Amino acid sequence: MYNTVSGGPYGQCLHGNAMHKWYAAYIKKNSLGQSVGSITSRVKFDFEVLAECVERNNSKAIEEQQTLEQILVDPFTKIAPYVAVVVLPKSYAVRIKFLDKARNMISGSVAYLDSISELGFDTDILSNESITPLTTL
Fold first, then answer.
1. Domain chopping of the chain, boundaries
2. Are 106 and 112 in contact (CB under 8 A)?
3. Measuring CA to CA, which of 14, 15, 102, 104 is 20 to 30 A from 59?
4. In angstroms, rounded to a whole number, what is the distance separating the alpha carbons of residues 101 and 84?
5. Largest CA distance in the chain
6. Residue 91 CA to chain centroid, in angstroms?
7. Cβ neighbours of 59 (radius 10 Å)
8. What is each CA distance from 59 to 45, 63, 65, 107, in whole angstroms?
9. Side-chain half-sphere exposure of 87, counting CA atoms within 13 A
10. What is the rounded distance in angstroms from the CA atom of residue 95 to the CA atom of residue 118?
11. For residue 105, what pLDDT is reported?
């Protein structure tokens, strides 16, 4: 975007302080004005909410415990849609309830996908519209 030299970009343009500044500007422009740090913090918080729900579930008596899918689709559990989708991408119930909401929530922001990937989750289901239609599950 900032390359004005014909024949470029050159190697020296792809690293250094200026490149980091340009990348930060690109992310901010494509993240609805949110900084990368705020998006990263939100993603970590949303995954921590799920971890707390699972921990609370595991502290119950065995006959009262729910499966992970039940926790995610429970209307009283407030799990971010993108968290539910990347945690159980092959669950039909999770996809029906959350996939469109998750894609809309993170659309236009590569920072969400980067933050989720850094946590070790596959983001293909969120970034690719044509991945495994629900009718073939």
1. 11-136
2. yes
3. 102
4. 11
5. 68
6. 17
7. 9
8. 21, 11, 8, 36
9. 24
10. 22
11. 83
Q: Which of 67, 51, 131, 52 is nearest to 99 (CA)?
A: 131
- 52 to 46, 48, 90, 118, 133: CA distances (angstroms): 10, 6, 22, 20, 31
Cα 107 from Cα 97, distance rounded (Å): 17
Average pLDDT along the chain, 137 residues, taken 10 residues at a time: 61 71 70 75 93 94 93 89 93 91 82 88 76 49
Looking at residue 74, the DSSP 8-state letter turns out to be: -
- d(CA 99, CA 59) in angstroms, rounded, equals 29
What integer pLDDT is reported at residue 130 of this predicted model? 45
User: Nearest Cα to 103, choosing from 86, 117, 120, 121?
Assistant: 86
Looking at residue 27, its pLDDT comes to: 66
